[in-house]
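Summary for the steering committee. One of the milestones for this cycle was to obtain a three-dimensional model of the protein with fructose -6-phosphate bound, which we needed before selecting residues for the alanine scan. The sequence and ligand used are listed below.
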Amino acid sequence: MCGIMGYIGGQEPTKIILDGLAKHEYRGYDSAGIAVINHGKIEEIRTVGRVKNLAERVAEAGLRGEFGIGHTRWATHGGVTENNAHPHVSNDNRVVVVHNGIIENAREIRDELEDKGVCFHSETDTESAVQYLGYVYDGNPKEAIVKLTGRIRGAFALVIMFADKKEIWVCRKGSPLVVGHAGNAGFCASDATALLEFTHDVWFMDDDEMARITPAGCEFFDFAGRPHAKETMHLDWNAAMTNRGSYPHFMLKEIHEQPDVMTHTLLGRVASGKIDLSSELPWTAEDVKKFRKIHFVACGTSHYATMTAAQIWETFGSFENRCEVASEYRYRNIPADESTLCIFVSQSGETADTLHAARLAKSKGAECLVITNVRGSTIHREVGNALITPAGPEIGVAATKTFTAQITVLVLLGMYIAKLKGELLPETETRLASALMDIPAKLAEILKQEHDIEHIAREFADARGFFFLGRTLSYPPALEGALKLKEISYMHAEAYPAGEMKHGPIALLDKELPVVALIPKNDMWEKTISNIEESMARKSPVIAIAAEGDQAILQYTRSVIYTPVTEPELYPFLQVIPLQLFAYYVARQRGCDIDMPRNLAKSVTVE
Ligand code: F6R
């Protein structure tokens, strides 16, 4: 969703804020704005479009100040206009605010203030907060914010400056916000990655918490204004990880990082053919025997990672698994209790639906575990039990390397639980552990075919749409392949279990609708070939993702991307990179904005 950056310290703030906003741009990119305090006066510039437009406007205007805040927006309330862009300033020019989230009772507050003669100038929910602050502020920022947080409902990360105070205030409920301090400078941001060049020790704001940031330090309070101490969290990412390097897009860089990411993910968890997660998970054999049901809960790519893993788990253990999208799970009455292990998967650790689903499962007494890429993220802090995917910051809006890290962790987790339950055969453990250790090198092999994949992608970039077909273990990767294509190329793509095509979707097939068929060398090969034949009989061109050595597939299509051979259960690990590269090059051929696709934001912190 939106991205926020704030700075107060000895340096001129505009450059630091604009650089910070550029790092947040993947969270929202329809408009941007900045406000500084200059000799007790608020000065602000807002613009539609990207942060670079804002930087140009700031340079033209020669905006300078002592400290300031900025925002990059992903519109929720109110269209994409300069007027709706943040920061918003109170009518009396004493208070300025940037906001990430949704204030649900904004209309009510607005009506109440309008009745009192306060004029509004935008369609945003945020303006209700700033006008409210302007109305109640009497020189004591903390008291004004206590009143505000008692009045507004919904999700918010608010960053506030008062023209007559040399300090930045932040408050949070439901939307992420991180605070840092280094030397004589204080910072706040939506994403910790924006603070890495200044400090690695940060405070993640909790719900119902506010902070006062000054050059001298940070103080924390609850929403009643009572102070409390707060521990910092050390970040093990470095600033270089947030650069694109020589790659044209973050997505391509992140696709190429996957061999290393997988190696890091396995490190310390697999050794000498054995899986061991005992240093990360508190469970004993007795504990895991209690888990009669397993619920996987996630959104988007993370959901497809759970679907992939859940099927792999079935091959070595007797699990009662269900995979649910968080936005449904949280509103349905799915039985979960003390005998349920709920596994929440979220790259960002901030996805609102996944977080709410976790709260629900906790309230029902389920054992909860989170798999996240962001240590210290909200879901990590709230759930406690966690396995971290050490993929490093993922900046491209389309998730790539974190999918690979997630399925790696999930498969290790399943093997570990099955082992504790006494179900994992020692030979299966050794066979899969050693095959997993070999996967990074195989991913590197696939990346060497990038140009062939690009060639195929260019050939099909004008298709009317795509079907992605796979059976059993290849179906979840097919879903992920279709999602990648939709997200970044805006082409319609649907994934189906191949055997289901004849129950309806086959009616859509013709020569303009290619089929991407995932056909590894396993016991579904012949059945998938039949489905390929059905597609070809309807004149659909077929692109096959097949296993090395499969010459027979060439009788059906010349558009083949080969993956190395692996254990039958582990082909999903190898199928996804070709699909990511295919989507990437289709999108590139179509001239799409790959790292910031329209209408999307990296981290979905509102419902
Ligand atoms: C797809 C994508 C999204 C996310 C989804 C969940 O490329 O990035 O579908 O996977 O929004 O996000 P997290 O994993 O952060 O909870």
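Key point for the committee: The two ends are 11 Å apart (CA to CA).
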